[in-house]
Amino acid sequence: MASSISDQKFISLTNDFFSYVMRITDSGQLEHVYYGPTITVSEDLDLDPRVERALCSVYEGLKNENLNELSMEYPCFGRSDYREPTLKGRNKDGNSIFSFEYHSHEILEDKPTIRGLPSARGGMSQTLKLVMVDKYLQLELQLFYTIYDKHAVLTKSSKLVNRSDHKIILEKIASSSLEFPAGDYDVLHLHGTWSRELNTERLPLARGRFVIDSKRGSSSAAHNPFVAVLESDASEDHGKVFATALMYSGNFEISLEKGEYESIRVVTGINPHDFSWHLEAGGQLDTPEVIHVFSSNGLRQMSHTWQSFIVEKVSPLRFKDKVRPSYLNTWEACYFDVSSEKVLHLADRAVELGLDMLVLDDGWFGKRNDDTTSLGDWESDRDKFPEGIAALAKMVKAKGLKFGLWFEPEMINPSSELYRQHPEWVIQVPGRKASLGRNQLTLDLSQVAVVEHIFSLMDKHLSSCEIDYVKWDMNRNFTELGSTSLAAERQGELGHRYILGLYELISRLTEKHPEVLFENCASGGNRMDLGMLSYFPQTWTSDMCDPIGRLEIIHGASYLFPMDVLAAYIGPSPNHQNGRVTSLDSRFLAGFFCGARGISLNEADIDANLEDLKTYIQKIKSTQQEMLGGRFDRLLKRDNRVSWQFTTRDQSKVYVLCFQILSATNLPITRVRLVGLEKKRKYRLLSEDKTYGGDTLMHMGLTFPHVSAWNKTSSIRRMDGRDFTAYLFELNRI
Ligand code: DGJ
């Protein structure tokens, strides 16, 4: 790994996976030169020529220095570049011209943290700090680039320091810009909505701009803050892929633009929509970190890089090799109708089933008999829990279980004691009646007093209640975004200040209570991003517990997230969201590769499936240690059929899961080809007592189980001839 600057003013970041090369031009611009497989930068590089073009302006009259054509590292608007800029605003003169030239750079062995924001951990990494200056405005722009020895990852962030004695108003400040030479590219992104998160869409990048964003306050289920730019012929195992994810949990924008000379610019950062920031004289503003992943071998290699990087460098280290307790969650078993008696009964059932933890979900506090009331009043409902939650926790734990509790700390119902006491703590604008989401409003985390209040109440619960796990939920998007504590001209800062308040709150809580396992949740996957996952080691993937609904969600999640961080429990059938009736078997198997597993079933459902549930939970327990840090692969997704592979970290066990979504008869024979095995080793297929070579499994594969309602021939590997069936192959390396 090396970061270097050459005589020709190339600045190069190179490791075994890629090179990222920039150049300081004679006019002081920071030109982007190359990003791709590792190259030798010490030799000549054939740079883009400065072509003479009609109808083009040139920077400061310099011959052919047409910034609209040049690949730029941190492009600004108004000095001959008409493409999407990284920075917008109003300077002291009231115009929008910001213009930075190279000043200096240094190489840091320790990766700096970002004030108030999460960032990937360093270690076996080098950071390049580039300083650019706008001499006229006396602004300093610091650009940070980190590369790692062992990961095909480049992280970037920016910081603007106002060294003048004037205020400037920022309307956009991106974290990163990438440029790709003219060519044919596709974009892959993950979109969705409540209960249908993380759908995959792949599109050719057309001329113009393609933007994914969130204006909702959270990173959102509508678009995950992730894109991959692919060479148009790239596939799962072939071609170059350049992926980007923003480590941020609020409003974001990723803009992909194919400009008039057909190069691609990808600008990533906080959403400029409804954003403005008054940067006072002497002030500074840091941007969230962007993580870029490079793969020269398609989407599979890209996903492996994300999965291992998140485990090694993003997810809280103290949970890295810890198995996640399997749990019984009360939500779909009882909804709001919880009580001491019911919870203790369910705790007994959890013990009987061999689960590790009882999680008391919504409904335990205030007068919370439905979703119209009590968010904000985080004291036990004494009608339901006469001895209080602390006593209940003790009773549950006396049974040998861990105890988990649901909170939605950022929210408030107008019908609550807290609202009566502090209406000014709520996000609101004057003169407008607030829109409600799930009958609730959002607390204004830009206010120090609000963050303090939530911190002390959570701290009190965590200190007194013997809580092992917290499900941190968040169930509405921003509307009427305004703060009672910000001056009129600073209202545009609220979206980002909210996220800074949130990060401060959760970083203090997780630091003070490092032993508590926090699960991220926002109506399922409405805030499933690397920001939240840097504080919370696991995330509730979706409220969609139906196995078929979940297939698409886990498929989408696997592009980016390691299975270690995903939580998925067995829910009831018929499913409460889409009414689908499925077997316990397929409900169990759809979430089998996820790191945090369990059930949310009532006593009748438990009774009806007792022995099967015991078997499945035993399976969870016996596999959870070996599955930590394992590798997930997408094998097949076609014609009603889905197949995934999971390989344990030590590679000694391989699971292949096959789903037949709708039944059909007389189907063609489909082969599932395994990936990433050791070709010279042998693998024993346990259910059939057969041994195959690694090369055979990868090239010839296994046949997808035959589906038939009538052909029960036992010599054929078969699945039931009905809808929504699943089949698990287990192979041991010998
Ligand atoms: C939304 C979550 O996604 C559910 O799992 C559940 O915790 C409910 N909130 C409780 O209100």
Based on the model shown, name its key terms.
globular; alpha+beta; binds (2R,3S,4R,5S)-2-(hydroxymethyl)piperidine-3,4,5-triol; 13 helices; single chain; 734 residues; 10-stranded antiparallel beta sheet
Can you put this structure into words, describing what you see?
There is one protein chain. Strands 6, 7, 8, 9, 11, 12, 14, 15, 19 and 20 form a ten-stranded antiparallel β-sheet that branches. The model has no long low-confidence stretch (mean pLDDT 96). The longest helix is centred in the C-terminal third of the chain and has 19 residues, at 494-512. With 734 residues, the protein is of the alpha+beta class. It is globular. It starts with a strand and ends with a strand. Bound molecules: (2R,3S,4R,5S)-2-(hydroxymethyl)piperidine-3,4,5-triol. The site of (2R,3S,4R,5S)-2-(hydroxymethyl)piperidine-3,4,5-triol has 11 residues, from loops.
Tell me the layout of helices and strands:
Elements: E1 2-5, E2 10-14, E3 19-24, E4 30-36, E5 87-90, E6 101-108, E7 125-134, E8 139-148, E9 153-162, E10 168-180, E11 185-191, E12 199-204, E13 208-213, E14 223-231, E15 241-246, E16 252-258, E17 264-270, E18 277-279, E19 284-286, E20 290-295, H1 298-314, E21 327-329, H2 331-334, H3 340-353, E22 357-360, H4 388-398, E23 402-407, E24 411-412, H5 417-421, E25 441-442, H6 448-464, E26 469-472, H7 494-512, E27 517-520, H8 530-535, E28 538-540, H9 547-557, E29 566-570, H10 584-590, E30 596-599, H11 603-608, H12 610-627, E31 631-638, E32 641-647, E33 653-660, E34 671-672, E35 682-685, E36 690-693, H13 694-699, E37 702-703, E38 706-708, E39 718-720, E40 725-733
Parallel strand pairs: 21-22, 21-30, 22-23, 23-26, 26-27, 27-28, 28-29, 29-30, 38-39
Antiparallel strand pairs: 1-2, 2-3, 3-4, 5-10, 6-7, 7-8, 8-9, 9-19, 9-20, 10-17, 10-18, 11-12, 11-14, 13-16, 14-15, 15-20, 16-17, 24-25, 31-32, 32-33, 33-40, 34-37, 35-36, 35-40
Helix pairs in contact: 6-7, 9-10
This protein binds (2R,3S,4R,5S)-2-(hydroxymethyl)piperidine-3,4,5-triol.
